[in-house]
Q: What sequence folds into this?
């Protein structure tokens, strides 16, 4: 009644305006004479095969990528670069624990050397002599002193980390204690501080 008659022709200006409102986000390149890609072409361009066509080449590429990652990790263990360190060594608290352990003298560094020396001496000394008993007793006395040293170090390290960071992450104190049991030159990541250079 109030609408347009069914046989009335639509106004071309209104049709053009409505088409512009429906598709306002036309590709900018299409205005320059380049046709817009069809939906089928766009979907085909986005498709990636789940299984590569050349499995040998994919295997070689994966091996090269793994080798590069391992090389970066080895360099990070030498330089202390946080980004490429293994997960077990990442984090500011572990970095602080490493620096604290590397700055102090630890008895645990020399346990393995003492054990090796005792083994070599037992091969030379007679097994029934008192010297072997004294050697083993001295070794266990050293182990006891190492345990006491590690215990005191762990308590102090926990207190320092809690003061600096507000809390202590799980495993950080054990991480520092195990590092103190390693010979300094064999530690990984390598020490970044000298003895006596305490972390701030």
A:
């Amino acid at each position: 009644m109030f609408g347009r008659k069914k046989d009335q022709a639509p106004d071309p200006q209104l049709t053009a305006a409505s088409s512009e409102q429906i598709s306002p986000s036309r590709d900018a390149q299409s205005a320059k004479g380049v046709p817009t890609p069809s939906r089928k072409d766009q979907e085909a361009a986005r498709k990636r095969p789940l299984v590569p066509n050349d499995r040998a080449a994919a295997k070689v590429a994966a091996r090269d990528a793994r080798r590069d990652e391992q090389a970066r990790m080895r360099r990070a263990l030498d330089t202390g670069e946080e980004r490429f360190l293994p997960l077990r060594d990442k984090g500011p608290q572990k970095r602080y624990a490493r620096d604290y352990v590397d700055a102090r003298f630890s008895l645990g560094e020399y346990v393995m050397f003492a054990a090796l020396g005792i083994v070599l001496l037992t091969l030379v000394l007679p097994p029934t002599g008192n010297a072997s008993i004294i050697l083993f007793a001295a070794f266990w006395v050293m182990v006891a002193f190492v345990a006491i040293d590690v215990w005191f170090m762990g308590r102090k390290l926990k207190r320092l980390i809690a003061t600096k960071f507000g809390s202590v992450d799980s495993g950080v104190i054990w991480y520092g204690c195990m590092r103190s049991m390693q010979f300094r030159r064999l530690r990984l990541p390598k020490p970044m501080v000298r003895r006596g250079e305490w972390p701030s």
Summary: The helical segments are 12-22, 39-46, 55-79, 92-103, 111-124, 130-165, 172-180.
